[in-house]
Amino acid sequence: MDELMTWPRGASAGPEGVAVPVPAPAGAVAPGAVSGGAVAAGPPAGAPVPAAGAAAAVAAGWSVGLDVGGTKTLGVLVAPDGAVGPSVRLAARPGGDGVAGTAAEAVRALLAEAGLPAGALAGVGIGLPGIVDPATGRVEHAVNLGIEAAVPLAAHVQAALDGVPVRLENDLNVAALGAAHLLPDPAPDLAFLALGTGLAAGLVLDGRLRRGASGVAGEIGHLVHVPGGLPCPCGQRGCLEQYASGGALSAAWPGPGDRPAPVALFAAADSGDAGAVAVRDRFAGAVAAAVRVLLLTTDVAHVVVGGGVSELGDPLLRVVRARLDDEARDSAFLAAMHMAERVTLAPRGVPVGAVGAALVGRKES
Fold first, then answer.
1. 74 three-class SS
2. Are strands 199-205 and 343-345 parallel, antiparallel or unpaired?
3. Mean pLDDT over all residues of the chain?
4. What distances in angstroms separate CA 172 from CA 157, 179, 201, one per listed residue?
5. Contacts for 239-242 with beta carbons within 8 Å, 24 or more apart?
6. pLDDT class for 7, splitting at 50, 70, 90?
7. pLDDT given at position 26
8. Under a CB-based contact definition with an 8 Å cutoff, are residues 291 and 193 in contact?
9. Alpha-carbon Rg of the chain, whole angstroms?
10. 211, 205 in Cβ contact below 8 A?
């Protein structure tokens, strides 16, 4: 997806969190678009404004979304009409104070670039790993952020920004919201399947973020894929993430040090290396199993594949879809579900998680 459509938003959050964005009616002019990270101009004077949800969206104000990871904080400014604006990337600083300070710095930088006062913000959303409590704004056990004990991160950032509302959410959940916002074919049901060091999914069901009763909805990486198989840090053996994650792929095919393991593996497989073909096909089968689990349990319209491995692009999509098609040939039931057609890749070079975090930031207090 080279160009991303954006639409006005007006849906309010339900019990499970932020609602899926509502698209403009057919034929309406989008208020802005982003391509390759560059901000496109808004509509010319007199251009039609989409009616559905527009008034509520404009009233919501601007918002900032931050995608916080172990090495960087990526921020994006989202306009009242839903258009994606400028972005900023800052190096990470560990610990609660470091994360909070970097977050506030990123927000100030975006406001300065857009020439906006802090009062223009309806809120700031922060997506980050670890155990996140959206109700209290606390995060704990975010090991790669240098956070172990619970930190009231939302309160710290809010104080640094003179009272601008700040809300936290799990990084997978904000990625799911961002993917729903950016899809050119919006649907009320979507799963964001992250192929990173581990494997998990963020879920948007019936138009709303679904966290689950204990906040672990979508943790499919710890379903047993190979009984008695590879040991997993969770204490089980044969977990799906030991076969379908970026970490699993790196362990199975370390490859030369000058290229990431996924790139080296797929290149070797394309050159006819029998060992590489076997590893690639096992990996594709495990990813296809993850897709199948999501589709059979939630029947989402889209499974959007993201995370580091998704940077492979079309070669990854082709082998996963091929595996799903192969399985469907032996099952009329699976064939009727058109699983391969529902899988797509997250847009490359676009801050999907940060965009979703901005939607979290706009949630009504």
1. strand
2. unpaired
3. 83
4. 21, 11, 6
5. 240/199, 240/286, 240/289, 240/290, 240/293, 241/198, 241/199, 241/200
6. very low
7. 33
8. yes
9. 20
10. no
Q: Give the CA distances from residue 361 to residues 62, 129, 155, 164, 365, in Å, rounded to whole numbers and listed in that order.
A: 9, 17, 14, 10, 10
Of 157, 78, 87, nearest in space to 121 by CA: 78
Mean pLDDT across 240-248: 94
**What's the pTM value of the predicted model, to 2 decimals?**
0.81
Q: Looking at per-residue confidence, does 365 or 29 come out higher?
A: 365
* H or E element at residue 305: strand 302-306
Q: Which amino acid is at 179?
A: A
111-118, Cβ contacts within 8 angstroms, sequence gap of 24 or more:
111/64, 111/77, 113/77, 113/86, 113/88, 114/62, 114/77, 114/85, 114/86, 116/62, 116/77, 118/161, 118/162, 118/164
Query: Residue 181 is encoded by which pair of tokens?
Result: 């916002």
Q: Which residues pair with 200 in a beta bridge?
A: 194
Distance from C-alpha of 82 to C-alpha of 358, rounded to nearest angstrom = 10
d(CA 354, CA 178): 7
pLDDT over 90 for what percent of the chain? Answer: 67
Q: Which residue has the tokens 């009409």?
A: 81
Strand partners of residue 237? 231
How high is the pLDDT of residue 18? 62
Burial class (CB in 10 A: 0-12, 13-18, 19+), 184: exposed
Q: Which tokens hold the place of 127?
A: 């997506």
Name the nearest CA neighbour of 201 among 311, 302, 322, 90: 302
Give the tokens for residue 281: 């096909």
8 Å CB contact between 345 and 54: no
Give yes or no for a contact between 260 and 267, defined as CB atoms under 8 angstroms apart: no
Per-residue pLDDT of 168-216, as tens digits, reads: 999 999 999 999 988 877 677 999 999 988 999 999 998 889 998 888 8
Q: Name which of 218, 208, 216, 168 is nearest 187 in CA terms.
A: 208
pLDDT tens digits, one per residue of 300-314? 999 999 998 999 999
Kindly list the distances between the CA atom of residue 7 and the CA atoms of 11, 17, 63, 127, 307, in Å, as whole numbers in the listed order.
Answer: 12, 19, 15, 22, 25
